[in-house]
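Metal ABC transporter ATP-binding protein
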Amino acid sequence: MMNKKKLTVSHLYVSYHGTEVLRDINFTIEKGKLIGIIGPNGAGKSTMMKAMLGLIPKDSGSIEFGGSPIREMRKKIAYVPQRSNIDWDFPIVVKDTVLLGTYPKLGLFRRPTKNDKEWALECLAKVGMENFADSQIGELSGGQQQRVFLARSLAQKADLFFLDEPFVGIDVSSEDVIINILKTLRDEGKTVFVVHHDLTKVENYFDDLILINKELIGAGPVNHVFRPELMQAAYKAPLGMLESLGVGI
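Structure:
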């Protein structure tokens, strides 16, 4: 049954030009969780997410959801890349950006229907951006752009959501809107993975954590992973510095 589904990563290895980036990553996450992927800079967080999605090649390993390879359910996966990886000069208006989220389900040679366009505007309203429907995407602030790309992912009606550093360079109000929507998706039974760097927000934002530094340091409920000994193993930081960020307190 759907509520029994789990996402499992087994023996994931990734290397760039012969240099090992990820080593033997293994974890299982139950469906309907909001999961933070954390670790120091250069730990391989974004690389792991891209390898899970098949966006970059892996040396070995498998990624399954409900016992089937994740590649078989691409239409059920929504991905929001880092803002720095997006061409914001591309000439497209906000409503058409969101409408792109309906394309995976359309099939070859089919164009969006009136219902698809209405759904795209509904998704825009969910992120509070309906008044910017006719604006060029490049004219928006960082937080507004991130909201639009979240609306695009909502338009996909996905089961799995992957967001790479969605809170970097955005305003506080946009961050609040985004995390509340992600929590709503979780409550609806969706599974949401977020590459994240702000440790002060971890306990308020996530159900589970995946802590890596080229290899897996810990995976599971926040209170099991967000502990001084595991955080020190990952970040190689003094205990006092970690305590100032709320680790283990």
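The first helix runs from residue 45 to 53.
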